Amino acid sequence: MKIGIPKEIKNQEMRVAMTPVGVARLTAAGHTVCVEQSAGEDSGFSDAEYKTAGAEIVSTAQAWASDLVVKVKEPQPTEYDFLNGQILFTYLHLSGVDKTLTLALLNKNVTAIAYETLEDENGHLPALAPMSAVAGNMSVLMGNYFLARFNQGRGVLLAQVLGKKSGKVLVIGDGIVGQHAARVALALGAEVTIAGLNNTNKH
Q: Does 97 score more than 70 pLDDT?
């Protein structure tokens, strides 16, 4: 199978869909892997590393002209012209109000597989869980940053100062996102209340 790895072009998206280690495993199994030039640079992987792993370094159009295209985020409008009956494996988030991407996938006969819908044998979402965990961790760090006065915040620091907790955090939802947000807030030293479907706890 020919597998394409395009460079991500969504604003602020610095990740790449496959590391050189992943490329090496696929090429060892007999697949052809086409990585767009500089696709991994923002994640710390050079074109040379991909070539050493067995990949072909190609143009944008060549990466998309594959049996299977593996990405991180959903295709952007400028990429719709590259859709042409291939299998697309990426985060899609098609439940949003804008149907443009859904229609483009349908019109171009793309077999689209969304990471966020993949379930394991226990009904869990293994591809979505780590994204949710990262979001939970970052939410508290960003919230702490914007509490600063220079960001027009209240001037409250979520941190333990000389053994005394400072700041209060209410986490709404006790799923993966909420659990990770609560852990980070607790670790900083804030007083944390988590409210969700399963329970409400204060720490």
A: no
CATH of the domain at 44: 3.40.50.720
Catalytic residue, chosen from 31, 93, 124, 180, is 93
Query: What does the pLDDT average to over 122-146?
Result: 92
Whole-number average pLDDT of the chain: 93
Query: Are 139 and 109 found together in one domain?
Result: no
What predicted TM-score, i.e. pTM, was given to this entire model? 0.81
In 3D, which of 2, 17, 4 has the Cα closest to residue 58?
A: 4
Contact 6, 36 (CB under 8 A): yes
**What is the strand order of the sheet 111-114 is part of?**
56-58, 32-36, 2-5, 68-70, 87-90, 111-114
* Residue 93 annotated to the active site: yes
- 27-67: pLDDT as tens digits: 999 999 999 999 999 999 999 999 999 999 999 999 999 99
The residue among 117, 147, 172 that closes a domain is: 117
Calculate Rg over the CA atoms of the chain: 21
Do residues 46 and 110 both lie within one domain?
yes
